[in-house]
Amino acid sequence: MKLGVAIFPTDYTIRPDDFARSCEERGFESVWFPEHTHIPAGRRTPYPGGGALPREYIHMSDPFASVAAAAAVTNRILLGTASASPTFSVPRANFGFV
To answer: For the chain, N or C: smaller number of CB within 10 Å?
Structure first.
């Protein structure tokens, strides 16, 4: 069986490169980094899970930067974005780390 893992990388979670390296060492098949760049400032629509919007959604790291950091330190594990909307993003915001 092949198992993959996902993480909402933020400034207060494990770093994407450290996470991917740890997952590869433990035999996972893949690591996935989600994206959620468009969160309205006004929260008129309630969070579907009830309560306040979890802070991870507001503090998420860029998935492309996370994949790049993970790729720099791994050899075999598959890397990807759990969801990505590059057409809705500002290219310089996504690729300014290069």
So the answer is: N
Identify the bridge partners of residue 72 per DSSP, sorted by sequence position. Answer: none
Output phi, psi for 84, to 5 deg. Answer: -150, 140
Check residue 19 and give its pLDDT: 97
- The helix or strand, by DSSP H or E, that contains position 80, with its residue range, turns out to be strand 78-81
Separation of alpha carbons 73 and 52, rounded Å: 36
Diameter over CA atoms, the chain:
44
CA-nearest of 28, 23, 27, 29 to 9 is 23
| pLDDT per residue as tens digits for the range 26-39 | 999 999 998 876 66
| Location of structure tokens 């207060």 | 12
What's the pTM?
0.76
Neighbours of 17 (CB within 10 A): 17
